[in-house]
Amino acid sequence: MPQTDDEMDAVAVRTWCSLALEALGREREAIDAINVYPVADGDTGTNLYLTVESAAQAVEAVFAAHETGATAPVAADAVRAMAHGALIGARGNSGTILAQLLRGMAGVLAVGHDADHLRRALAVAAEVARQAVAHPVEGTVLTVATAAADAAARTAHDAGTGAVARAAYEGARTALEATPGQLAVLGRAGVVDAGGQGLVTVLAALVEAVCGRAPERTRVSVPALPVPDDCAADEAEGGPAFEVIYLLEAADAAVDRLRTRLDRLGDSLVVVGGDGLWNIHVHVDDAGAAVEAGVEAGRPYRIRITHFGADRAHPHTEPVQRAVVVVVPGDGLRGLCKEAGATTVLARPGEPPASGELVDAIRRAHAREVVLLPNDAELRHTAAAAAEQARAEGVRVALIPTRAAVQGIAALAVHEPDRSFDEDVVAMTAAAGATRYAELAVAERQSWTMAGICQAGDILGLIDGDVAVIGEDVPQTARDVLDRMLAAGGELVTLVLGEDIPDSLADALEEHVREGYLAVDTVVYRGGPQSAPLLIGVE
């Protein structure tokens, strides 16, 4: 949504986060592919996506908290939430630096959010990001951030926020194109800096948020051939074996001592945060010593240790060959899927699982091969990022793009761990794809739909994600939806009842199917709390 008052209000911040997350979702794999510095581990795009995902969720939480109140969120609340979310969710070297950039911007934009404050915010962001890196290197995201700030500073005094944002984007893009000539490892690989590319993507989203129109973007430069082994950064050749990341609650003085100690232990040290909460990132050979240093400084938590290039299987238990990880909308389906041997992730209303939750579930499954069923079209980027991260940890992951829980049930029903992985994935994908899905929902307000205008309290029948039926009660709307779906044929109807739906409705719908469609069977499950009033699948 473009700004009309030439200021970045809370809605603009929310839009920025949303657009940045969407853009990084599209470009994540391409950015991963050009990641050769500081370690060629192919995860920069994924780490940036996860970092912005955490920032966007924090901003959404601010808006959710105001939904029932009389006041709307203010810009200061939104930018502070964005920075805090990025800080606690920062992943990898690139994500940690991006979190510090956003924190630097938020410190200024919380005070004012006109064009002049945006200029200063970009300048402060570039400065504090450099300060966070123990040994800044030119030709990286730091160079790109500085160029963006410098270009914004050169805009006319009376320029608006849109002009400042566009100048920052163009300055960053120009600097990005020059990075291969500044950093030898990039020049040898024939790519631009991956972290810098991610920052350009985030700044492009900022332009779109404040101007209402995205700038013309440069395609991510991906090398035509695999990056040769000698394209690891000079610092990384024969370098540390572990990446250690953790959040830390500690005083400033203790963090200053920690920074000195970690700098002696390893490299790629980035320390971001403040006001008692910090995000620590370092590459070391002795991961235990890095964590112990954090314990001495304060309280470390959310500790993540990655062994570069190693298959990080569980150290005490032999992994099983294959597992299924499935996102479910209610406790009833959770129990059903667990009985079928799947590892589950519960999706609560208004709180879709983050990539980190999906990655944790994949780890809990403790398998060499994992089939991931997101069961929600809105989770496609989140699930893709989780799958990519799990693959980097040595797990073979197949993502089946199920768009609804009934598609996941159909896929799980044909799962056979004894056959080959590829055959199993093909069979599960075919079963999910052959299942049309629908759900009933209650309209919250008057609005225009594909089926006409609905009023608050109407029962909506959504088929394949679009409103197809508007009704006054659940039983009749459910029958109308079933008739529409079965008009195209079907062999099996799956009904998932919400917590408040009586068994008598399931009996009535089974009878309706039996009388009108002789060759169609019906199965009924209880979704339990969190589930929609009624989910319908037709295979």
Keywords:
19% strand, globular, 539 residues, 4-stranded antiparallel beta sheet, alpha/beta
Describe this structure in words.
α1 packs antiparallel against α2 (44-66), α1 packs across α14 and α10 (252-265) runs antiparallel to α11 (287-297). By secondary structure, this protein is α/β, with parallel strands linked by helices. The chain is built from 18 helices and 16 strands. It starts with 9 loop residues before the first helix and ends with a strand.
Pairing-aware structural class of the strands and helices? Answer: alpha/beta
Quick check: average pLDDT?
86
Q: What best-fitting shape do the alpha-carbon axes yield? A: globular
Radius of gyration, taken over Cα atoms and rounded to an integer in Å? 25 Å
Fraction of residues in H or I helices: 40-55%
- Please work out how many helical segments DSSP would assign: 18
What's the helix and strand layout?
Layout: H1 10-33, H2 44-66, H3 75-89, H4 92-109, H5 115-132, H6 141-153, H7 161-178, H8 184-189, H9 194-211, E1 242-249, H10 252-265, E2 266-274, E3 277-284, H11 287-297, E4 299-307, E5 320-328, H12 331-339, E6 343-346, H13 355-365, E7 367-373, H14 380-392, E8 396-399, H15 405-413, H16 421-433, E9 436-442, E10 447-449, E11 452-454, E12 459-463, E13 466-471, H17 474-486, E14 492-498, H18 503-516, E15 521-528, E16 534-538
Helix pairs in contact: 1-2, 1-3, 1-9, 1-14, 2-3, 2-4, 2-14, 3-4, 4-5, 5-6, 5-7, 6-7, 6-9, 7-9, 10-11, 13-14, 15-16, 17-18
